[in-house]
């Protein structure tokens, strides 16, 4: 016969109510009790009806994560991992919605409030309009931003992208660089990614330094950003002495390409990134460290507090960034590249 809640309670040495609470609201019981109840349930092959719990609570036990692309890169992967680390233990499923085009965007913001199919919404890295915030608000669910510049959220976590890139510019300036090139892939015109602040931050920081010659180069998605970087180094009469990439994943391939071109980092060119993502340390890339996993954990905890009606500690939280100086930056060379 199928095991019951009473069977699990008897085996775990707890009450029926504690077993029910463990599955419906795991955050309300101690870790030791959760482990004990789960072990008893596993031994008895017990499973609780999720639909019954949903009907009783009026919740879906599902949260939505909006991202700006179908590609799951390092940052998004860290966000997903951090959210799941908290939400899984609380009994919530995480559903990912890529919001890449206008049609997908309109469909999500129109249909979610009507369907009432999530208990909270996370928006990662891109902006949503006041009208979209209002439409989500009609669903009466928390909206939590992760690295987004939009207003109207119930809680947010993020970094100061401008401050991060200013650390890079100041570091290069102290080394003696006065000819910098910032490279990035063109942004979607409709999503308003928060990392665009790195570009404006770069321009602002360079504008405060005497004698600084700084340019930005937007590379189209169909073009290769490494080819663009090498072309700038070879074709310009006064080529840049340092290349600043919008993110690490764009900078690291340059290390391999320059070797084939007979150039080296940092003797011929200094290179920086942003993120301190996978392989940045192995490549000895000077970069700015951010911790998206930690931000996601904090965002998930804020969302659970909002769902449960608890007060939120630090609803709008800015996380620190750190300059990681490694072997890809040095004083500029004193002789021409060619």
TrEMBL record:
Recorded GO MF terms: DNA-binding transcription factor activity; transcription cis-regulatory region binding
InterPro entries: HTH_LacI, LacI/GalR-like_sensor, Lambda_DNA-bd_dom_sf, Peripla_BP_I
CDD domains in the record: HTH_LacI, PBP1_LacI_sugar_binding-like
HTH lacI-type domain location: 3-57
Keywords carried by this UniProt record: DNA-binding, Transcription, Transcription regulation
Signal peptide (residue range): none
This protein's record includes keyword Ribonucleoprotein: no
Keyword Transcription applies: yes
Pfam assignment, any one: Peripla_BP_3
PANTHER family: HTH-TYPE TRANSCRIPTIONAL REGULATOR GALS, LACI-RELATED TRANSCRIPTIONAL REPRESSOR
UniProt-recorded name of the protein: Transcriptional regulator, LacI family
UniProt organism field: Bifidobacterium dentium (strain ATCC 27534 / DSM 20436 / JCM 1195 / Bd1)
Lineage: Bacteria, Bacillati, Actinomycetota, Actinomycetes, Bifidobacteriales
């Amino acid at each position: 016969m199928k095991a019951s809640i009473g069977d699990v309670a008897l085996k775990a040495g707890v009450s029926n109510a504690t077993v029910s609470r463990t599955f419906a609201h795991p955050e309300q019981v101690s870790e030791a009790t959760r482990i004990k109840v789960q072990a008893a349930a596993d031994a008895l092959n017990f499973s609780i009806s999720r639909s019954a719990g949903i009907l009783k609570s009026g919740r879906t036990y599902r949260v939505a994560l909006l991202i700006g692309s179908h590609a799951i890169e390092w940052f998004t992967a860290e966000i997903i991992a951090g959210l799941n680390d908290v939400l899984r233990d609380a009994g919530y499923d995480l559903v990912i919605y890529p919001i890449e085009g206008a049609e997908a965007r309109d469909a999500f913001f129109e249909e979610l409030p009507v369907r009432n199919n999530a208990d909270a919404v996370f928006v990662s890295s891109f902006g949503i309009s006041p009208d979209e915030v209002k439409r989500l608000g009609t669903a009466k669910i928390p909206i939590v931003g992760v690295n987004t510049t939009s207003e109207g959220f119930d809680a947010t976590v993020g970094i100061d992208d401008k401050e991060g890139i200013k650390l890079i510019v100041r570091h290069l300036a102290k080394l003696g660089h006065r000819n910098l090139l910032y490279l990035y892939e063109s942004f979607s015109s409709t999503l308003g990614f928060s990392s665009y602040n790195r570009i404006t931050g770069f321009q602002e920081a360079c504008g405060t330094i005497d004698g600084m010659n700084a340019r930005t180069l937007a590379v189209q998605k169909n073009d290769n950003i490494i080819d663009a970087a090498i072309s700038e180094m070879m074709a310009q009469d006064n080529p840049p002495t340092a290349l600043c990439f919008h993110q690490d994943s764009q900078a690291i391939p340059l290390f391999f390409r320059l070797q084939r071109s007979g150039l080296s980092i940092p003797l011929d060119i200094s290179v920086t990134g942003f993120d301190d993502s996978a392989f940045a340390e192995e490549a000895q890339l000077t970069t700015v460290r951010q911790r998206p996993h930690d931000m996601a954990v904090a965002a998930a905890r804020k969302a659970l507090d909002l769902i449960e009606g608890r007060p939120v500690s630090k609803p709008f939280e800015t996380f620190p960034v750190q300059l990681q100086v490694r072997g890809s930056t040095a004083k500029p060379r004193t002789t021409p590249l060619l």
